[in-house]
Amino acid sequence: MSKRKDIIIIGGGAAGFFAAINIAERHPKLSVAILERGKEGLQKVRISGGGRCNVTHAEFVPSELVKNYPRGEKELLGPFHTFMTGDTIAWFEERGVALKIEEDGRMFPESNTSQTIIDCFLQEAKKYNVEVLYNYVVKLINPKGNGFSVETSQGHLECDKLVVATGSNPKIWNLLKSLGHTIVPAVPSLFTFDINDKRIKDIPGVVAKDVEVKVLGTDLVSEGPLLVTHVGMSAPAILKLSAFGAIELAKRHYNFEIEVNFIKQDMEVCINTLKDLKHKLAKKQVVSFTQYGLPKRLWKQLVLASKIGEAQRWADINKEQLIELSKQLTASVFKVTGKSTFKEEFVTAGGVDLKDISFKTFESKIVSNLFFAGEVINVDAVTGGFNFQNAWTGAYIVSQSITK
Ligand SMILES: Cc1cc2nc3c(=O)[nH]c(=O)nc-3n(C[C@H](O)[C@H](O)[C@H](O)COP(=O)(O)OP(=O)(O)OC[C@H]3O[C@@H](n4cnc5c(N)ncnc54)[C@H](O)[C@@H]3O)c2cc1C
Predict the structure, then answer these.
(1) Which residues have a Cβ under 8 Å from the Cβ of 339 and sit 6 or more positions away?
(2) Is the predicted pLDDT of residue 123 greater than 80, yes or no?
């Protein structure tokens, strides 16, 4: 095997394979090699989306798509005009992989298995003679002339252009730092909130369809479904806060308070509605007549938390109880004491500082002929297929820049 390649890609994950295939397809004469430290590549693709691989999201307006990126919103707008969700769908379809849209906009292979994506990548890599070198751990990157010398666990290789697609890997970040890049410290993004509270302790599995959640003492706020879990709260209303608040919540060591508005109404409006109900439902038990379309078990807990007895009727509740119930419905405060992993899916905020990258080419502004794609850069997204879309977009633009 020649130790000299035109292009070396470090990392055989989503971004690495996508870049390699697109480079090799556009320019068959270039020698392209992927160096992957594992004995197999694409491991995150395999486990992604619960084994189904949530490839992208059915959002076709770049200015809307970028809103899903707490880090990268501004920088990805241009790149999405070059390659975004529609292009991803077409790319896979042209290679025989049909994608389907689920109700919430997430897109998966029709086969419902990530193996389809892996098979597609491996076949395409083979078809275009991409050399995939497994068990190659990259240890050093040295600029040499206009190119690079790369030290690996299996000796050294050289190349003209280098693509770093190593995901969230602290060792590679250190190497990039020694080459002059700023590395934004990594913190977890996408996690659920640990909450030990009587109101939700016995009702895991309950979903409030559309709530508003604020992190008290910050301007973090989100809306969407909320799921009560065995250890706290999850679902989009919480996960969005975990992503957009990744840095702020890490600073607070995951100890903070949230205020949940279960009915997305002002407290005053709610009080008036409850006063009407007091007359209309005078003889009925408060606990038994669920309001606002809330799940029965959640309504019961909020009523009991308002110190309204289980047998109490609407006619018998006093002013304080009525105000307390409206507070529980519109401004319930919960204490968060930690975080948990969301369905084993985790994403890291942090990485190569976006200031160091040209988003027209995904090339380093510090070292020429060095390119980045995927999670190695300081971009991350909420759950829903957006993290992979960042990998596809960056990798595609790298392939264009390199083969121009
Ligand atoms: C359980 C789970 C489920 C997920 N599900 C989804 C989903 O459904 N949809 C979605 O959009 N996102 C999902 N994500 C996030 C998504 O997987 C990542 O954003 C994406 O994989 C990033 O791609 P990447 O190529 O940048 O990095 P990676 O996929 O992490 O690939 C990096 C590669 O580089 C290799 N590498 C690292 N260091 C070296 C080295 N020194 N030498 C050689 N090789 C090296 C690694 O072994 C790895 O193969 C999920 C994440 C997890 C953990």
Answers:
(1) 188, 191, 192, 193, 194, 242, 249, 254
(2) yes
Ligand 1 centroid to residue 100 C-alpha, Å: 22
pLDDT-derived band at 345 (thresholds 50, 70, 90) equals confident
375: DSSP letter: G
Question: What is the residue-averaged pLDDT of the chain?
Answer: 97
**Residue to mutate (ligand 1; options 132, 141, 153, 166; most atoms within 8 A of CB):** 166
- Report d(CA 184, CA 176) in Å as an integer: 12
DSSP 284-331: SBTTTS--TT--HHHHHHHHHHTT--TT-BGGG--HHHHHHHHHHHH-
165 CB near ligand 1 (under 6 Å): yes
Q: Is there an atom of ligand 1 within 6 Å of 348 CB?
A: no
**Which carries the bigger pLDDT value, residue 375 or residue 2?**
375
- Using 50, 70 and 90 to split pLDDT, how confident is the model at 344? confident
- Per the listing, tokens 């040295």 go with 142
Structure confidence at residue 346 (pLDDT): 79
pTM comes to 0.94
Question: Between vectors from CA 66 to CA 61 and to CA 72, what angle results, nearest 5°?
Answer: 155
Is residue 384 in contact with ligand 1, taking CB distance under 6 Å? no
Confidence of residue 119 (pLDDT cuts 50, 70, 90): very high
Per-residue pLDDT band for 294 (boundaries 50, 70, 90) equals very high
How would residue 343 be classed by pLDDT, with cut points 50, 70 and 90?
confident
Select from 18, 35, 44 the residue to mutate for testing ligand 1; criterion: most ligand atoms less than 8 Å from CB. Answer: 44
Give the other-Cβ count within 10 Å of 34's Cβ: 26
Q: In 241-283, at which residue ranges do the beta strands (DSSP E only) sit?
A: 256-261
Measured CA to CA, the distance from residue 141 to residue 179 in angstroms comes to 8
Residue 11 beta carbon below 6 angstroms from any ligand 1 atom: yes
Asked whether the beta carbons of 232 and 340 are under 8 A apart, the reply is: yes
Residue among 43, 122, 387 to mutate when testing ligand 1 (max atoms within 8 A of CB): 387
